[in-house]
Amino acid sequence: MSSTAMHHDLQVISTAEHVPLARRETVKVLARWGMSEQVVDTACLIISELVTNVVQHAAVLSPTATVSFAVEDEAELVLAVADAHPFKPKPLPAAHDCGGRGLFLVNALVREVRGRGEVVPDPATGGKRIVIRLPLVPAKNPKREGSSACSSISRANSKPL
Description:
The relative contact order is 0.24. The chain has helices at 19-32, 37-58, 102-112, 149-156, and strands at 4-13, 64-72, 76-83, 116-122, 127-135. It is of the alpha+beta class.
């Protein structure tokens, strides 16, 4: 059984305007927890893609989504995005007219840092929860809140990625 020392939940409305909110909250929480810039940037991209997927593919049945952050056993950062839509997404091998690269990008980022991800059913809502686990490495030079590249993206781009 793992102990969760740090945990934060955020409820977002399933609209494009709330993707930057999820990005900003990711930066704020993880910077406050002392995460390295690399971890913050990776987590920020993952959360952006997962919340964008909710907006594009699940909003019709899930007017809100829950974004969760946790550190477990001081060894891994757990990111999760839950929605009430029962469809379980799969990464596409190639983009199409309506997008299709989000989960491919998420999987590549997770593999790059030797993390893991899974889609689990959420019996309470009938939907699913995408859970990403990223290993933590000690930060060499923690940055102050809002100084990561992802926070620059969220300030410069108010549209979903």
